[in-house]
Amino acid sequence: RIPNFLLQQGDLFEIGISDVVASDVHVLICDAQYLRNNISWDEKYRGVRCRSKQHGVWALLLKQFWLGLSRLQTGGVLIFRFGWRD
User: 50: how many CB neighbours lie within 10 A of its CB?
Assistant: First the structure.
C-alpha cells in the first residue's frame, strides 16, 4: 500500500460528500463511463438506471466533479476524460 494513494470503491449514484473517505485531495481523476454491468462487483448492477448512456455519462461526470472538487486542495489538479460508446 502507498500512504498517499486512496481508491474508494462505491456506486457514485448512491454516495454523497459525507461518504467520501479522503480528506485532502491533491490530484483528482474523473473518468465518466456509464458501464453498469461491466464494472459490477456483484455480477449484475442493481443500482440507478439512467434514461440513456448519455444521461448516465453526464450524471456521473457531474457527480465526480461535485464529490472530488469538494475535497480538492488549493493548487490541486483536476484531470478528466469524457466519452461514451454507442
Answer: 15
C-beta neighbour count of 33 within 10 angstroms: 17
Partner residues linked to 30 by β-bridges:
80
First to last CA, the chain: 37
CB hemisphere CA count around 22 (13 angstroms)? 19
Residue 52 confidence (pLDDT) above 90: no
For the entire predicted model, the pTM comes to: 0.70
Do residues 69 and 30 make contact, with C-beta atoms less than 8 angstroms apart?
no
Residues 6 or more apart in contact with residue 45 via CB below 8 angstroms: 36, 37, 39
